[in-house]
Amino acid sequence: MAEITRKQQEQITEQGNPSRPQGEAGAEMLARMNESHAEVTEWALSYFDWRGDEQVLDIGCGGGATLQRMSAHIGAEGHLTGLDYSEVSVAESRAFNAAEIESGPYGCIDRFGREPAVCCRFL
Predict the structure, then answer these.
(1) How confident is the model over 43-62, as a mean pLDDT?
(2) How many domains does the chain have?
(3) Of the candidates 66, 74, 78, 73, which has an alpha carbon nearest to the alpha carbon of residue 42?
């Protein structure tokens, strides 16, 4: 993503509606968040004592970058599920993790409406 000013970042966030990303602005905001949250996410995940058999639920999976980072630590005995109620977040998370979903024993489930949507389930 090209260098953008703080004001532009704030505009992207406001237009993207962080509480429930919608439309093109929501997708743009999620892409920015995937990048801008990378360092703090890596720091937080470094405190986990990964065994590979974890059963992980990422509530509010957003653009999917955290799911991808965690999937590197989850082995065949564990599984990873991403959950979000924004259709845009589900679509962006699936797109971001397309290679992982396609190459392994992963499944995806959609449930829209009043209930949350499960965006990725890594079995």
Answers:
(1) 91
(2) 1
(3) 66
